[in-house]
Amino acid sequence: MARAAAKVILLGEHAVVYGAPALAAALDRGARATARKAATDRLTLGERGSVGGDGSELARGLEALRASLSAPPQEVTAELEMPAGAGLGASAALGVAIARAVLESVSPALEPGEPAVRARVLEAAAAWERVFHGNPSGIDAAASECGGCIRYTRAAGPEPIDMLLPLSLAIAVAGPPASTREMVESVARLAERRPDLVGKTVAGITSLVDNARLCIEAGDLPGLGKLMDLNQMLLAGLMVSTPGIEAACDTARRAGALGAKLTGAGGGGCVIALADRDAEPILAAWRAEDLHCFAATVGGPERPA
Ligand code: MEV
Predict the structure, then answer these.
(1) Residue 37's domain spans which residues?
(2) pLDDT band for position 299 (50/70/90)?
(3) Which of 8, 17, 20, 143 could hold 24 in an S-S bridge, CB 3.0 to 4.6 Å?
């Protein structure tokens, strides 16, 4: 059984597609998969299934992933431990878990922690992601593969970040699932119509991300929260926020969150809120509005009492 983490983007989604840096952190839930050699490809994902050559995205994804690993046909069973289409990197977590499972099946002697093996997993997960998302920056798969907290650019890839303090996050599903491909394409259309606006927004988000990295390294949680709020404003300017996302962010801030924003592609999906210490008051406020929500602690040594 191979596993891989889902992720949250702390700051920088969408801008990262245009080469800007972004910050992401792995969650303690994600996807799991098993694989074994078979006469033809078969992939079972919960209630969904595909057979090699049926033209479905799942079948094409598995074929691309296998081709990247030069692996023979596989029978794969995979499960998600979190909602799909919510901005938490479900498809990348699946790609990483399936790539690990296929490598385990074809080369059981390989050491999963070896840099060369990790690079192969990331490459295969990227091939899978391209089938589902067209032009992914690669941050979702990198966050899933690396774990912890990373800074990511398309050019330099993932770089681990040392966190002085753990981040206590509250996460709510603030809208129906949205397609990452469609949201990325909508920003691309805006960039064609208004290159000035999107260019300035990407530059603004770059500064926020650079400052947020310093806050994470220094343990400046109020500073990080303010930068998340500013990032949310710039994302709204890219037209990827929704009334549901704005309402969930407002509720979180009124309940004491240091900052709140959408995470992932937007258009629906999840909101993250940074808690000072205890995420519970934010979760209680969201539950009172019937939002599905949960707490997640990301990285860092134990915080002193
Ligand atoms: C999706 O989790 C993040 C986006 O920036 C798309 C990508 O980076 O591939 C919206």
Answers:
(1) 2-160
(2) confident
(3) 143
